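MODEL INPUT / OUTPUT PAIR
PAIR INDEX: 1
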Amino acid sequence: MQILKLLEVCEVYQPKTIPKKDLIEDGKYFVYGANGKIGRFNEYNHSEEEVLLGCRGSVGSLNISEPFSWITGNAMVVKPKSNQLLKKYVYYFLLSLNKKNIVTGSSIPQITRKSLETVEIPVPPLQEQEKIVERLDNVFENIDHKVSIYEDEIKGIDNLFNSTIHSIFVQGKDDYSEVFLKDIAEYFNGLTYSPTDKSDSGTVVLRSSNVQNNKLDFKDIVRVSKDVKEKLFVQNGDVLICSRNGSKRLIGKSAEIKDLPEPMTFGTFMMIVRSDKNNYLKWFFKSSVFKQQISSGENTMINQITRYMLDEIKLQLPSEKVQKQIDNKLTKLYKACEDLRQNINLKLYKTALLKKSILNKEFSYE
């Protein structure tokens, strides 16, 4: 078996990119980006299926395109130079690589031809490649089937939780009172700061990246030395909302402030809602009712949540007793769903380790 440089046996290049505005909803051919299909277009630039390595955006992701597709420059085509190297074999080999060894750039991660220059690929005879591909196809089909089941289970858990919240907030009962959010809560925009304000010993500024899975995550924090007004320090019970983000789908994600390890403020693209009814409101902000009220339609993606939008929010408010009952019910349901989700995520993690182990064994040539 030969050990050869990847760039010796494969043509590696980035095709021409199509601006998103030029995509055609009912176009004849699929368009592939860094992480798979991103739309359609009426022309194609590749007539054969190709191995695609995400080099921008979803860096390191791997796909095999359908024949007659347009592949954009956010994906790198890795094309064998001869018919003595199978495309599917190349795909599995790339899948076995440690992506950390080929990704460059700290602020904007990417994969370039230069970062692939040192990559070596074992090239056995064609017949052996076919056996390896067949073997991995069979094993991965079973593993991927399990992964699909696990992912469907997580979707089912999320749907249960979301539908339960929706049923509570979509329509109040006769003894509920209709109120505007502005009449029962205060809300504040976050702290404005610049890179020069950052300090290793300053106040922690909570940002959208700190809101993960409906709770706070402190793995990636920023500190600033700037003076912070008292009202802009978050308090236990506040609800932190992402009011603006580069990814529109993340706008509106929220988390309850509790058990802070130290005093903290919040950043420019965040808002806090403060109310003595936040044990009830924190669930409202996770409901589809809230999301529909801050958009012009159920499927509309908004650019930003403003104070004016919150002023116009209406909700059905039950008695204090019922608010507590709802909070207790949803807290227990959330805990049960979170336990199930963590159990399934552990299974997904183990399947990912299993796939990696199988690939490492298959392509080990030391």
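PAIR INDEX: 2
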Amino acid sequence: MNKGNTRRPGKALTAAFVRTVKEPGKYHDGAGTGLFLRVDPSGKSYWVQRVTIRGKRRELGLGSPPTVTLAEAREQALDNKRLVRAGGDPLAEKRKASAVLTFEEAARKAHAELSPTWKNPKDRAAFLSTLEMHIFPRFGRVPLPDVTSGDIRRAILTARQKTPEVARKLVFRVSAVFKWGIAENMCTVNPATAQALALPRMEKAPVHRKALPYPEVASCIEAVKASGAGRSTKLALEFLVLTASRSGEVRAATWDEFDLGDRATRAICATWEIPASRMKAKKPHRVPLSARAVEILREAEKLADGSELVFPGTKQGKALSDMTLSKLVKQLGFDADVHGFRTSFRTWAQEQTNFPREVAEAALAHVIKDKSEAAYARSDVFEKRRKMMETWGRFLRAETGSNVVQITSK
């Protein structure tokens, strides 16, 4: 044999020869595909295929024995030959394949690109943390195009057993990764669609916020007043209860949202108008203010920190945090959520007054779900709500023994 350029023309290689050959040289398979085995001076061998792509001779590396067997090398060489005859480029295909990321790699890149567009910082963190817990251990190392609907479905169903709400969000997060992959030409289909997963319907468990019985609300307010909490926190919590508002609506309230009128008309026209941007239903909401609510605002004026916030937090120009009010209530020994005061108000209105249901619902800024009813019910029953909120305020003061109130809608 001629060292450095050994040939066996017309004769195919055998598995035994490939396994034992040590002499340096090129050993052609003779199958017409351009496949040969190159053995270097150290005895290491490599599969190489010589092809002509668009008029240029190229050599393609196909791996090394014994990792790549003779049969596998022949199969790959034949596939490459067919691709070249069809006008394709095996080198380009190989580069494209090497650029494909695993699901985890793609998810992290997608997260880095997309997260700046998400308003809630918690969503940014949750996107990756939930994938790390429920998805990456199952198919994080699988190339993105190779992940199947079955892989995703099994992971989601397992997550449902522990945290149903997280499992629901996982579907959208996994789908977002594939949408990003399609845009990057890493895959062509999204196996995380609802149709592809065919997940069984999950009954959504109702979420009930813990609420105090309405006769106990006044005692909670008195406990808050007597606590060592900051003045702004105390006023904000009482104002929230009196207006039956959501925590975020109160904490972010600014002075330009209020019309308190003059002293002569304050009791009959004081109004708080919450802009649509801060309302859950994305519609502006007018709140009639009771006499005590106005008193709280006058007290809050003394807390001005130079910002427009009515109830400023401990840091200048910053609103109270979303946990401040809730933490205070629980520290004082009341087993209730701040949002639950809305339930207390609603139950009081239902059991202790004659105000119509639609008045109480309007006070809570609830959207009428029946489209036909909503089409006709265009009034916000504002004046009736003013009477209701004043009655609610008097009820709370009566519960502390400060006065007696007649429970009526008239």
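PAIR 2 NOTE: The chain has 19 helices and seven strands.
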